[in-house]
């Protein structure tokens, strides 16, 4: 996938990555896989069974978590993408993500500590002052500190414009501090992952808050939001911990369905004098800055969902290859064999395994494709940068939502392959299913992603991103049609569904259709996602056919998974799109008292 | 639904139900709902949090369970369907099921105790000797004893022909016992729900085992299976408990994803001298007898899944009506209102609620329709009996599988409506989702149901059941087309999909298509199920239109839910059927080493 499809080797000719070659990149991935398997894997059931406990105002995690996170940090991966001069590895992003993916595979919730810490530090490195980077970002990249994002409040979950956390300038000289303009923060934050523990020397919170005007009123809407870095323990002007706790109280923990290796908390800022925080960027820029990192976080959610899909698929495959049950039978009911069959031989089990392969490897292709775009956005030439930026804008809601929905389905199939055994804690698949259920919710729910796609992304700049992407799909289609005749029927099928999507997109952009289309935003996104995955599957198989030296079973497996997707999944897209095309108003006209 | 659609009042003119009228039936349902809400409802989270504990060879359940089950038994519902002379109520089955459904609504896993006990006693009442009825069935109907079904073994889950539990005649005079031919049972049973506890005075196990031949060899296959009643504590010839424990050991408990109010156990029979059991019916009849009750159990599974779907829908609806979040916006992004909207006002939330209504009420219609058929099978005239028997054969796999799959989807949508809150234990929806996940597995997995439908039910007697059902659907279609013109487009859509199903069914019955069709048995069953539900929705709405006196919101809601199903769900069926129609061989030709 990396080299024969995504041409990752091309990156090693770019100045930033000149130190790398395929051999080194491979060894980084191998080492990551090994550390993840050894340090995260054995803990994954324990952290589920012993969910974080709220004791004396702290979140207590099981023994072993601290060691596992230390090993993660020691791998150097937290800083992998950053410059060598700050201790980074200058690793291409697609390799960076692939290396992290092994940690997600072995424990999605433990890997979330690293994900949040990286995201936090990345934001500070991009938007923080030099002093803020030194005091708050570098210790995170080294694994000494960890990070959180504090957005939601009880009355403001998805609706961030309604936050009421206040940031008041800390005295007349509040601008005179080395670490940035200093404020006192007061407010309650909810759904904060990775807070309240003592696994690292310090926890750095990135907090959205509003600065009141001269009358004490908070500015309205999202444009009034500013961003602050708020350390758990205070840091002095030499960037050293001074040991004094900030005014932050862990008010409680959420008891979650899954994803239990990382505490999810309620935090009270400023119950006493106000928590000390330093503004990042300008007042009112908070949400814009936060969204910069949210976009990468969303691709990471997709990656985690894809790896949970993979984990379930591998577990189900292993079980199906060894468990014997039932007989293969002829039409008249007679047994074809005296011995019980391994269940992988039963057609319905094979179907469920092929579905999992098709869904989880399709999801993985999507997130790696997006990660590769991030590399072009960062280090490509101007044309590549523009293309990558625009495509990423469009594909981010898909990269977040599609794996979340369909790898959850794959996890349900993994349970089904194991039957009763899959419903017990003796096997990991039920946990994967519970863990994965979060991914359609956090970092913007499915509905939010769908609205973002339908009401914003496809409309921006007169559909610039959408039509650029259409051209990409058509490049694959025509390449398949001309150079690989065996792929022609699939190319034709894809072109047909693409045309249908284009027609639906144009229709949904008509003013008169706005409300109706919005009621079908999720089916629209589902159709869009299925067409994206079909395109990527076709492109992967095109690459596979171009490389006859690859292992024959690997090649055949990729082709079968692609065919499965075109036969069993892609046809759904036309049905979803029809809801808008046929102007179905059932949802829109549903009255509340009819429920 | 009961009176205006299913004509339940007709039943009260039948001799067996002559004591009932609508008022009495309604009051039975009201009382059942009240007891279930008061006694089961408050325990449902507790039993999930405190799963059964294995202590000193017993399964220990939380305080309160015994009282709740006593209240259930005191309601008289355990014996509701039986003759008055044995303490029953001679209640029509459709009312019996509806009364039980409230218990499933308030705690699916606690209601499973009653379900298993009823099923056990029903089997004994149908196939046991008078002495067996008196000793084992009546105390269950009175709630003093409870019951289990012991089918699976470690090497024989779905493949019951491979069980190795042995039943050896207990001495030369083994036939001379009042309670029936007496055997010593040895073997290990797994996945046994409702065993190992001390909530009732005794537990009656119905155990499948094989009687060895003169060489000590067990007969092969399912035809060698016999059925035994094996009490936990021995019973003397006067049907009284003699207090001596039988030779049965609780070897362990399964730790389940959900459905935790009832222990699921591993039982060892005959570790010492052999557990004493009495044969029911003839040797070799075991599976046939067991399947008699399995068919009703399967409809009950569907009912439980439907009620979980209902429970999630109600919880999501309540949340959506009160929770405020976000703003309704115009196309240019401006707010339509100053106050945050209640989330039910957001189109995507409304869509998810309507989907839940459509799926869970559709499922409920299906299981009630089947329960009504059971009444015709039991108390109808000869023509009605034949029709009901044949239709039930065909529809049982659908009644079991469709609610299990689609009300699970509804439960996932309930979580999604609540967002992050839905992912926590502060709300019940995550538990509904976990509880419901069992229903696609137990009492015959989804794949087993699909094979049963495709390889047996549609073929029996040259498709007698299938074509009888087709005629029923066409009766609804033509009645809608002639008397309710507003339903005509839906009738046409249904007729089109029905034709497609008929074509696919005929194709899949061709000898040359057997293996290919088997690989698509699950999609075939999904399509079949969707067409069944569409038919029932149309028929429900036809009945609603025939009763203009019904509440206007109720009528509008039913119509909207029907329209939703036809717009958003039914179109999937054509796609599923196409896999067989187009002879897609992707799954069939997948080789094991390509995974």
3D architecture notes:
2 copies of one chain form a homodimer. Chain A is α+β, with helices and mostly antiparallel strands and 595 residues long. The first copy, chain A, is 53% helix and 12% strand. The first copy, chain A, has 17 helices and 12 strands. In chain A, the strands form 3 sheets. In chain A, strands 3, 4, 5, 6, 7, 10, 11 and 12 form an 8-stranded mixed β-sheet that branches. A two-stranded antiparallel sheet of chain A has the order 1-2. In chain A, strands 8-9 form a two-stranded antiparallel sheet. Chains A and B meet through helix 8, helix 9, helix 10, helix 11 and helix 14 of A and helix 8, helix 9, helix 10, helix 11 and helix 14 of B.
